[in-house]
């Protein structure tokens, strides 16, 4: 054990302990499963008939689709009953995000409405503001947009130039500026706009027909074409002071907290999309004949199918493990001051949310890329669904915080917590240094668990060394932080896959977990060795390098056989071999 | 008025069935509310919406049927009775067990699927009517109540349709075209959790015993026609479909 203390309730706690139990999709209750089925029906019965038209620019179909989603209760999952919502666990919102993944741009329309669109109002709205807008957003009568990004500031959201000045009579704010890449803009009624006031960044609720608010044309996007994305121009827009959302100067809190929620849903949506792409690919591989047999029988195709399934399994396990942690934390909350407490609970797992965002979006990009490859020339044609999946995937690495920003956040947030004494990261790192100097050569009883611990130690060692060497300047060492992030992402995913596979009783799941872990160890070793010479010199460096090798040691395995067996299960299942509860 | 839907849970037609030791293995199969029963449920809900009263589902089958029952409750049915019996029961035995409960409920009418997707049987509806000594209208595509005593219904025949007036209580079985069933809303799903689901153990022995099951396997011929000359290829295709496949 790395640490003696049990920390399972803390975000990032898994880094210092050996967790025994995780939440998995096999733990979904009947309600969650039924909701999943309702979303599946929604996709088949409501979305499918207008999918083509939406893809070809008839964006107005988004509006009745959102209304129907409202009728079904799908817009109020995270809203209280007093406003027509259902106030369900966060897992449910994630399951919905996953089940909607195949709807491409519409899933963005939906996601914006239910996350960044109405959650700011749920958590920061006054009673008057909620009474005015919330129930209508839940029914789909009103559509919401969220305006943070500007032409000159995306990742650097605090660099926003849009200004809000109080009118002479103190009754209005006058807003001027330009917002960029605003999803749902084309048909939104309510815009949450962030602007600078003397106090700092402040959020405003602005109705569509307020004079001075003007929309740009639809952006010509690579993918998610069914979603509306436009610029929003604000010229002397008069916003009543009652429409300030939250406190003056506290807009950054709204902006960042809401992004946390978006991130885990994005991760789940990405996993859903990847399952769809794998199903298309497995089916195609069985039908396409080349050199006298279905291409599914070729080793190089099987290798792809096995890798795709394995990464999906790891990603899915990581997503729902996180949801389990969040829902457990939220279930013990006192409902009285719910908004604050819910936000604190979600914030606690911000590290995991970033991990899932990066992991999910990169699993999806890998899967759609190989999916196109399996389709050969046909994968390059718009006649085949995989082509759209490929284009729709790409945005996920860019919005909700680019993957670079999220990679920096993962070790950044852990270090900040360690400094505040919330996570005994430095104790563990000190202990680890001693341990690295006096290695034990005992054979561990549980090899895979020991390997996971090795990975955790390596991540700690990299973080500890870097913090020691650079102190506050560590922020300038992005490449080092990204190596730590990559190891952390891999270990969280590998551990989630392994713990879940053990509960599932082995089989193909154990094989996928083993394959993922094997590659995680190799990746971690290469990544660590690539930056150690920057963190240490001479004997110190050599000592650390040999420690890195030892911590990521594993016996060679016949990966060819392993992948072929996994591929067999993928082909039998016609896609991702979803575990049965 | 009281409207009863009799439902079953069956394997999803899209899942791949496997045979293990001469028996269908349902291990990896998704189980769903039988689609024809779904039409029955929808019709019962519509009747209740129009005429008031109560809607009830009755199901006879193993514990796992509860999922299908919950679906019906989430669609809008008021309450459920689950006759719990593991293992296979032939339709006559099923009908006898169901009839006891349904007679006690004294409904205005009973609706069930025209065909049971799992055993590919069309017997349950008629057998149930027989056990109740009520009239039956099978393959119903339209129904209208005429007060509490009669219903006018349109139902399919082999090569056409017939409109009938039937004295109530009666048993109706569903046919495609009857309605477009709704699917559960989230509030419906939440409400379903609080609805009454009465479990009644059933000990009946089947009059038919299944000894062995096999799955029909059809291997494809994979016959390829050379397409260099499209006209000749089309002629060859027509010839093959006519002379060998004998489908045109
Ligand atoms: C289809 C679409 C829909 C969108 N919807 C919305 C919406 O509804 N509302 C909204 O407010 N915004 C929306 N956005 C904006 C989106 O959130 C931004 O595009 C995103 O935050 C990135 O900002 P940017 O495009 O300005 O890129 P930049 O921030 O300019 O980034 C460019 C590159 O530099 C990297 N980079 C930036 N800063 C750093 C750093 N400090 N260290 C290392 N690398 C860095 C980035 O990772 C990226 O690779 C949307 C964007 C798109 C494309
Ligand atoms: C935009 C575009 C332009 C083109 N232009 C031309 C042109 O001008 N002239 C022309 O003649 N053709 C052209 N092509 C066709 C192109 O060369 C083929 O698409 C390519 O050779 C792949 O063949 P395929 O699409 O049939 O894929 P397939 O051969 O069916 O391959 C599907 C997948 O199976 C894999 N695979 C196939 N066989 C094996 C094997 N034995 N072992 C392992 N894996 C295997 C492939 O690598 C691929 O991943 C064009 C295609 C496109 C998309």
Helix share, percent of chain B: 25-40%
Stretches of chain A where pLDDT is under 50 for at least 5 consecutive residues are 1-7
Tell me the strand percentage band of chain A. Answer: 5-15%
Decide which structural class fits the backbone of chain B.
alpha/beta
Order of helices and strands of chain B: EEEEEHEHEHEHEEEEHEH
Overall structural domain count of chain B = 2
CATH class category label of the largest domain in chain B: Alpha Beta
Protein described:
Chain A: Keywords: FAD, Flavoprotein, Oxidoreductase. The complex is a heterodimer of chains A (581) and B (248). Chain A is of the alpha+beta class. Among the domains of chain A are: 25-142, Butyryl-Coa Dehydrogenase, subunit A, domain 1, CATH 1.10.540.10; 145-251, Butyryl-CoA Dehydrogenase, subunit A, domain 2. Chain A has helices at residues 30-47, 51-55, 62-72, 90-99, 105-117, 119-124, 127-139, 251-287, 299-331, 338-348, 350-374, 385-393, 403-419, 425-437, 447-470, 478-503, 507-535, 538-551, 559-573, and strands at 144-147, 163-166, 172-183, 190-197, 200-207, 213-215, 229-240, 244-245, 289-290, 293-294. Chain A has a four-stranded mixed sheet. Chain A has a four-stranded antiparallel sheet with strand order 2-3-7-6, with helices on one face. In chain A, a hairpin with a 2-residue loop joins strand 4 (190-197) and strand 5 (200-207). In chain A, helix 8 packs antiparallel against helix 12, helix 9 (299-331) packs across helix 16 and helix 15 (447-470) packs antiparallel against helix 18 (538-551). Chain A starts with 29 loop residues before the first helix and ends in an 8-residue tail after the last helix. Mean pLDDT of chain A is 93; it is low at 1-7. By secondary structure, chain B is of the alpha/beta class. Chain B folds into two domains: 2-201, HUPs (Rossmann fold, 3-Layer(aba) Sandwich); 218-248, no CATH class. Chain B is 29% helix and 29% strand. Chain B has helices spanning 35-51, 66-75, 91-105, 124-132, 186-192, 230-244; strands spanning 2-7, 9-11, 18-20, 23-25, 31-33, 54-61, 79-84, 109-112, 136-146, 150-157, 160-167, 170-174, 197-201. In chain B, helix 2 packs across helix 5 and helix 3 packs across helix 4 (124-132). The structure holds flavin-adenine dinucleotide (2 copies). One flavin-adenine dinucleotide binds next to strand 1, strand 3 and helix 13 of chain A.
């Amino acid at each position: 054990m790395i640490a003696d203390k049990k920390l399972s309730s803390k975000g990032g706690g898994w880094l210092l302990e050996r967790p025994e139990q995780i939440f998995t999709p096999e733990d979904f209750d009947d309600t969650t499963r039924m909701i999943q089925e309702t979303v599946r029906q929604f996709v088949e019965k409501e979305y499918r008939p207008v999918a083509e038209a939406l893809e070809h620019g008839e964006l107005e179909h988004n509006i009745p689709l959102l209304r129907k989603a409202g009728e079904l209760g799908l817009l109020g999952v995270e809203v209280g009953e007093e406003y027509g919502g259902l106030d369900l666990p966060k897992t449910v919102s994630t399951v919905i995000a996953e089940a909607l993944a195949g709807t491409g741009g519409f899933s963005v329309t939906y996601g914006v409405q239910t996350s960044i669109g109405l959650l700011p109002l749920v958590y920061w709205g006054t009673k008057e503001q909620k009474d005015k807008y919330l129930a209508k957003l839940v029914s789909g009568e009103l559509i919401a947009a969220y305006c943070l990004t500007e032409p000159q500031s995306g990742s650097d959201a605090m660099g926003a130039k849009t200004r809000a000045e109080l009118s002479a009579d103190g009754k209005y704010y006058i807003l001027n500026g330009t917002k960029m890449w605003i999803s749902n803009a084309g048909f939104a009624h309510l815009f949450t706009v962030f602007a600078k006031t003397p106090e700092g960044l402040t959020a405003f609720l602005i109705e569509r027909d307020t004079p001075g608010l003007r929309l740009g044309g639809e952006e010509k996007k690579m993918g998610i074409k069914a979603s509306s994305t436009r610029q929003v121009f604000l010229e002397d827009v008069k916003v009543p002071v009652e429409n300030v959302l939250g406190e003056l100067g506290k807009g950054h809190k709204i902006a960042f907290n809401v992004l946390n929620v978006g991130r885990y849903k994005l991760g789940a949506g990405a996993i859903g999309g990847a399952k769809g792409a794998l199903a298309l690919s497995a089916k195609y591989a069985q039908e396409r004949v080349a050199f006298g047999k279905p291409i599914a029988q070729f080793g190089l195709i099987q290798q792809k199918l096995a890798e795709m399934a394995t990464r999906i399994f790891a990603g899915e396990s990581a997503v729902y493990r996180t949801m389990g942690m969040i829902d457990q934390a939220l279930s013990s909350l006192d409902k009285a001051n719910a908004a604050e407490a819910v936000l604190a609970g979600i914030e606690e797992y911000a590290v995991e949310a970033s991990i899932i965002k990066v992991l999910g979006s990169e699993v999806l990009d890998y899967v759609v890329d190989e999916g196109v490859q399996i389709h050969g020339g046909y994968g390059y044609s718009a006649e085949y669904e995989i082509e759209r999946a490929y284009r729709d995937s790409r945005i996920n690495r860019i919005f909700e915080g680019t993957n670079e920003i999220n990679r920096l956040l993962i070790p950044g947030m852990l270090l900040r917590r360690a400094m505040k004494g919330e996570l005994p990261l430095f104790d563990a790192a000190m202990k680890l240094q001693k341990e690295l100097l006096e290695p034990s050569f005992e054979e561990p009883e549980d090899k895979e668990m020991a390997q996971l611990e090795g990975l955790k130690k390596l991540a700690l060692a990299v973080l500890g060394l870097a913090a020691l060497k650079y102190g506050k300047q560590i922020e300038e060492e992005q490449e080092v932080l990204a190596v730590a992030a990559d190891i952390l992402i891999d270990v969280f995913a590998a551990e989630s896959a392994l713990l879940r596979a053990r509960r599932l009783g082995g089989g193909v799941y154990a094989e996928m977990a083993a394959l993922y872990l094997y590659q995680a160890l190799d990746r971690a070793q290469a990544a660590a060795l690539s930056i150690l010479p920057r963190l240490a010199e001479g004997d110190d460096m050599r000592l650390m390098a040999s420690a890195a090798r030892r911590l990521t040691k594993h016996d060679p395995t016949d990966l060819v056989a392993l992948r072929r067996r996994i591929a067999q299960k993928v082909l039998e299942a016609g896609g991702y071999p979803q575990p049965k509860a | 008025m009281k409207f009863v839907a009799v439902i079953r849970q069956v394997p999803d037609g899209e899942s791949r069935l496997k045979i293990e030791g001469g028996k269908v293995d349902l291990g990896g199969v998704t189980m769903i509310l039988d689609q024809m029963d779904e039409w029955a449920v929808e019709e019962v809900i519509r009747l209740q919406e129009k005429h008031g009263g109560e809607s009830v589902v009755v199901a006879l089958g193993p514990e796992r049927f509860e999922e299908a029952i919950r679906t019906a409750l989430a669609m809008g049915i008021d309450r459920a009775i689950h006759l719990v019996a593991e293992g296979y029961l032939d339709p006559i035995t099923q009908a006898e067990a169901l009839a006891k409960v349904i007679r006690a409920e004294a409904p205005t009418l009973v609706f069930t699927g025209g065909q049971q997707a799992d055993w590919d049987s069309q017997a349950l509806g008629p057998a149930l009517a027989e056990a109740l000594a009520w009239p039956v209208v099978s393959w119903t595509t339209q129904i209208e109540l005429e007060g509490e005593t009669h219903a006018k219904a349109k139902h399919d025949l082999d090569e056409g349709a017939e409109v009938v007036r039937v004295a109530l209580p009666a048993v109706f079985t569903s046919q495609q075209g009857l309605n477009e069933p709704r699917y559960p809303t989230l509030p419906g799903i939440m409400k379903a959790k609080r609805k009454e689901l009465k479990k009644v153990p059933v000990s009946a022995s089947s009059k038919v015993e299944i000894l062995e099951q096999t799955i029909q396997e059809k291997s494809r011929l994979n016959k390829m026609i050379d397409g260099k000359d499209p006209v000749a290829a089309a002629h060859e295709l027509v010839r093959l479909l006519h002379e060998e496949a004998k489908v045109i």
